[in-house]
TrEMBL record:
The keyword Protease does not apply. It comes from Endozoicomonas numazuensis. Pfam families: Histone_HNS_N. Residues 27-54 form a coiled coil. InterPro entries: H-NS-like_N, Histone_HNS_N. The keyword Coiled coil applies. This is DNA-binding protein H-NS-like N-terminal domain-containing protein. Residues 6-80 form the DNA-binding protein H-NS-like N-terminal domain. GO terms for molecular function: protein dimerization activity.
C-alpha cells in the first residue's frame, strides 16, 4: 500500500497520469498550482545555494587553517598529541575508600568497602537514618 507522498510522486511522474489527474481542473486552477510548485522549487533552490555557500566557506576556512599550520610547521598529529596531553593533565578527584561496619535491621553486622561520598547500600543508608550517625562514624580500622 502506497502512502500519499508515494502516490503523489507516482501520479506526477508521467505526463499521461498528470493529464488524467487534472482533466477536470480549469486552466486558472492549474496555473495557481503550477505557480505554487514553482515557488516551492525556488525556495528549495535558495536553500541549496545557501548550503553550497556555507560548505564553500567552510572549505575555504579549512584551507586557510591548513596554510597557517603549514607555515607554523604543525600537522594534525601534533594537534592530536596536544589533545592527549590535555587529558592527562586534568586533575583527578581524590576519593578515599574505607571499610565501614554497620548493622542491618535484623541485627546482622555487615562490613562494606566504599568511599565517603556517593551512593550507599540501602541497608547502610537505613542504618545511618536509624542511628543518626554519619558515614565517617562507621569507619573501622583496616586489619
Amino acid at each position: 500500500m502506497m502512502n500519499i507522498f508515494d502516490e503523489l510522486l507516482h501520479r506526477l511522474g508521467s505526463k499521461t497520469r498528470i493529464r488524467s489527474l487534472f482533466k477536470d481542473i480549469g486552466m486558472d486552477e492549474m496555473e495557481r498550482i503550477i505557480n505554487r510548485l514553482s515557488e516551492v522549487l525556488e525556495e528549495k533552490n535558495q536553500e541549496k545555494e545557501a548550503e553550497d555557500l556555507k560548505r564553500k566557506e567552510k572549505l575555504q576556512s579549512v584551507e586557510e587553517i591548513k596554510k597557517v599550520m603549514e607555515a607554523k610547521g604543525l600537522s594534525m598529529s601534533d594537534l592530536n598529541l596536544f589533545q592527549e596531553m590535555g587529558k592527562e593533565g586534568k586533575r583527578k578527584r581524590n576519593v578515599s575508600k574505607h571499610n565501614f561496619e554497620y548493622q542491618t535491621a535484623s541485627g546482622d553486622t555487615v562490613r562494606w568497602y566504599g568511599s565517603t561520598t556517593g551512593r550507599l547500600p540501602k541497608d547502610f543508608q537505613d542504618y545511618l537514618d536509624r542511628t543518626n550517625k554519619k558515614r565517617i562514624d562507621c569507619i573501622v580500622d583496616d586489619e
